[in-house]
Specification:
This protein has 615 residues and is α/β, with parallel strands linked by helices. Strand 18, helix 17 and strand 19 (436-438) form a beta-alpha-beta unit. The chain starts with a strand and ends in a 6-residue tail after the last helix. The structure holds thiamine diphosphate and magnesium ion.
């Protein structure tokens, strides 16, 4: 057999292959890779760097400031694109590569596609040990990039140029598979990147990928439908899978037709608009009273596209109905089976549309739907109280949220860690699918700003507002410079409560002394008194500090039309959170301690554990 070939280096072949992968968005064929984030060093500058330069007009390369940050941006891009499009990230060997490991885990936890291309040591081993090479005394095959293995859905080390032919196909199959999807790591040995090979031309043929919609199995479907037909007090828990499957419309018709209240997880928030009458808002540890009251009593929970993590299930103490049945509508069997659920392995939209047809005649009890409406009314009043401006010296996070909401009601909100996710989950009024972007699978401090950049690249028309605590900002802020460089306008609202407010509160709640969280409670000689506005300005942002909620609102309005990334800083109270709603969360309290406060907390903890379901 004679195949036409083209002689390229391995890195050139990788680059060319990436440009030929396409997908269809709104009837238009577009590249499936939105771009490549790169920080070069030895291990990628000569090979991958040269190759990316050659295709830069087709597949743009963006210089970031930190490998973890750039991978956050790439992952956020995929999330904001509902996993239809994604990005690649390339690094040098050693520290550059390892800086991406946390982000790989983030993508793994959140089931988000990203192609990681860290450089690796010489496959031929002749110059060993090279700069930044870890030497394992007993294993010649070990490199630091082995750290990617447990946090990648697919990992391969490329030690010969032709290996990328099967490896890249496998990579694409994983990245585009709704059930398997997550980070793919191809660890590219630096000498092999530069090696030439006669690649078959067919390897570079254009390929248009589409997202597979898995249809329900007949037996699983019958069991799920039977459970629902017997339900009197059903609820839906809408997870991220609803958004990724673009099932919002199907969810709305199903909920309306059968009168089923919808409870949203962090990843699933914005599945329905906040003001839809059946949207009860957030569920679980950071849930609204409206959602949690229903969850306690529910006889059937239709859990759609959710991993059912502890924040959603109140550490498995939220559901109190002895006859509770869970129907796990999920494209991933691992999730569909959780907690003895009746699995319904299917795409969320396909599953909902099929159920919508099959349950004709059934209806949730009217009293149940009425209870939902009344609960929602009450919650809305509680939320208004929490977000209303008062004359307190320092505003609460909730009041800042109220101001952002009023000034930028159409914003796409980005956040990840600290006290804000809980408050936003309860209080943010999300308008449409994807307008609430919370990374709460891994809740990684430092995701916020870099994530905001990825969201803006994916959705350039959106008014992207990042809300971030002082702690997260300190951990990672340098992609502000990248946002300036790329002309990607973000509005960053920085809530400075002088420390790790939420962990300080958790410490107090578990009987601990105020220790090492708020800056004032740390071992210090001098408190730094960080001027965040000056810091952000130094990176090129428009910035200002405001001293009240009213000033914040004005600043948000005034800077809406500013084209540059803007940072607005406000001091906040580290102690206040929204009391209404919420649920117990399992955080293990020490069994023995010299502190009476810890002993009291332990006693309460042991009592609370009694409500936790096993299995
Ligand atoms: C990378 C990382 N390190 C540690 C944590 C644990 N953690 C969660 S929130 C938090 C404090 C966040 O502080 P800040 O951003 O100021 O928000 P606040 O709690 O004050 O609202 C810490 C240390 C984490 N989630 N991520
Ligand atoms: Mg803080």
């Amino acid at each position: 057999m004679s195949q036409k070939t083209i002689r390229l280096t391995m890195a050139q072949a990788v680059a060319r292959f990436l440009t030929m992968q396409k997908t269809e968005i709104d009837g238009e064929i577009v590249p499936i890779f939105g771009g490549v984030f790169a920080i070069f060093g030895h291990g990628n500058v000569a090979g991958v760097g040269e190759a990316l330069h050659g295709i830069k007009d087709v597949l743009p390369t963006y210089r970031a400031q930190n490998e973890q940050g750039m991978a956050h941006a790439a992952i956020a891009y995929a999330k904001a694109s509902f996993r239809r499009r994604f990005m690649a990230c390339t690094t040098s060997i050693g520290p550059g590569a390892l800086n991406m490991v946390t982000a790989a885990a983030l993508a793994h936890v959140n089931r988000l596609p990203v192609l990681l291309l860290p450089g690796d040591v010489f496959a031929n081993r002749l110059p060993d040990p090279v700069l930044q090479q870890m030497e394992d005394f007993g294993d010649g095959t070990a490199t630091v990039n082995d750290c990617f293995k447990p946090v990648s859905r697919y990992f391969d080390r490329i030690t010969r140029p032709e290996q990328i032919i099967p490896a890249l196909r496998r990579a694409m199959a994983v990245l585009t598979d709704p059930a398997e999807c997550g980070p793919v790591t191809l660890s590219l040995c630096q000498d092999v990147q530069a090696e030439a090979y006669d690649y078959p031309e067919s390897f570079f043929e254009e390929k248009v990928w589409s997202i597979r919609r898995v249809m329900p199995d007949a037996n699983e479907f019958a069991a799920a439908a039977t459970a629902l037909l017997q339900a009197k007090k059903p609820v839906i828990i809408a997870g991220g899978g609803v958004l990724y499957s673009e099932a919002s419309q199907a969810l709305r018709s199903f909920a309306e037709r059968y009168g089923v209240p919808v409870l949203e997880t962090q990843a699933g928030k914005s599945s329905l608009p906040h003001d839809h009458k059946l949207n009860m808002g957030s569920v679980g540890v950071t849930g609204t009273s409206a959602s949690n009251t229903l969850a306690e009593e529910a006889d059937v929970v239709l859990a759609i596209g959710t991993r059912l993590q502890d924040f959603t299930t109140g550490s498995w103490a939220l559901f109190k109905n002895d006859d509770l049945k869970i129907v796990g509508l999920n494209v991933q069997p691992f999730d569909a089976h959780k907690h003895r659920a009746l699995p319904l392995v299917a795409d969320a939209r396909a599953g909902l549309e099929a159920l919508n047809q099959a349950l004709t005649g059934w209806q949730a009890d009217t009293a149940w739907t009425d209870k939902a409406s009344a609960g929602k009314e009450q919650w809305l009043m509680a939320a208004d109280r929490a977000t209303a401006t008062t004359n307190a010296e320092l505003p609460s996070d909730a009041q800042v949220i109220g101001a952002v909401q009023r000034a930028r009601e159409n914003a796409t909100l980005v956040c990840a860690a600290g006290g804000l996710p809980g408050e936003l989950h309860k209080l943010w009024k999300a308008r449409g699918p994807g307008s609430y972007h919370m990374e709460y699978g891994f809740s990684t401090m430092g995701y916020e700003i870099a994530g905001g950049l990825g969201v803006k690249l994916a959705r350039p028309q959106d008014d992207v507002v990042v809300m971030v605590g002082d702690g997260s900002y300190m951990m990672m802020n340098s992609e502000i410079a990248s946002a300036i460089m790329l002309g990607a306008k973000l509005t960053i609202v920085l809530l400075d409560n002088a420390g790790y407010g939420c962990i300080n509160r958790l410490q107090m709640a578990t009987g601990g002394a105020n220790f090492n969280n708020l800056l004032a409670d740390t071992h210090h000689v001098t408190l730094p008194g960080i001027d965040f506005a000056a810091h952000a300005a130094a990176m090129g942002a428009v910035s200002r500090k405001v001293s009240s909620i009213a000033e914040l609102e004005t600043a948000l309005q005034e800077t809406e039309s500013v084209e540059r990334t803007t940072v607005i800083v406000i001091d906040t109270d580290p102690l206040i959170t929204t009391d209404e709603g919420g649920h117990w969360w399992d955080v293990a309290v020490p069994e023995v301690s010299d502190r009476p406060q810890v002993n009291a907390a332990r006693e309460a903890y042991v009592k609370a554990l009694k409500a936790q379901r096993a299995g």
